[in-house]
Amino acid sequence: MLFYVQMRWNYQGRISQDKLWELEALEGDHGVEGIRAGFVQLYKVVSQHRIIAIVNADSLDDLDRNSMGWLPMREYLEFEQVWALRDYEGFLADVKAKFPQPGQPAPLPVPVDPAATREIATAWFRNLSEGRSEDALKLVDPDVIWDNVPPVPGVSDLAPWLGSYRGLPAVLKSFEVWAAHSKMLSFTLLGDVLVEGSRAVGIVHEHAQCLSNGNEYDLQVATFLTIRNRRIVEWRVCWDVAPLVRAYRGL
C-alpha cells in the first residue's frame, strides 16, 4: 500500500531548536533504516520545518504503528496530510466494470510492465531537468489528465494556472499562463523514482522566480505519474504553496 505523508515539526514553545536537532539525529537513523528497507523515501522541504514521505506499507496498521508508536519524534510530528494511493489500473478496471458489488468477481487489471513504467518516468524527469520540454511532452498522452494544486482563495489570484485540466492543449495553455508569471531556474529530481505497476512517484526540487518582482522561491513537488501504453495518461502534483505566496507577495 502506497501513501503520501506530509509531516511538520511542531516544536515551537515546547523545546529549543538545538533539542529538536538532537531528536532529529535519532529520527534520522530510524528514517535511513526505513529507506534501506524499501519502506519509505524521505525528503526535507527546503527552508521549512516539513518532511515529505512516500511510504510503501504492508497495511494501515503498520503505517499507524510507525507514525504513532515507533518514530522517535512522534510527540513533535504533526501529520498534515496522509493520502492512500490506489493503483490507477485497478481503478480503471472498476470503472469499466461499473464498480462490481461485494461478492462479485473483481475485474483483473491489464498486465503492466513496471520496467516500462520506470523507463518512461525516468525519461520524463530527465528531459525536464535538462530543459528539453518538447521531448518530455512527446511522452504525454493527448488525453492526459493534469491535476495541479486545486484553486485556493487567496492563492489562485497569485497563481491563476492552478487547477485540473484534461487534454494536452488545455495543459499547454495552463503552462502559458504560468510562464507569464514565473520562470523556472532549475528542476531537479531528488533521489530515485518509486514504481508500482503503472504508477511512478518522484520528488522534485523546483527553483523558480516570480517575474513581477524578481523574488526567487523553492518548491518540493511530489509528482505522481500514471503510464499506459508508454504514455503518461495522468499527471498529478502535490506541493506546499507557502513559498510561492511569500515570493509573490514579497513577504
From TrEMBL:
InterPro entries the record matches: Dimeric_a/b-barrel, MLI_dom, NTF2-like_dom_sf, SnoaL-like
SUPFAM superfamilies (UniProt xref): Dimeric alpha+beta barrel, NTF2-like
Domain Muconolactone isomerase residue range list: 1-88
Domain SnoaL-like, first and last residues per copy: 122-235
Protein known as: SnoaL-like domain-containing protein
Species for this entry: Rhodoplanes roseus
Native organism taxonomy: Bacteria, Pseudomonadati, Pseudomonadota, Alphaproteobacteria, Hyphomicrobiales
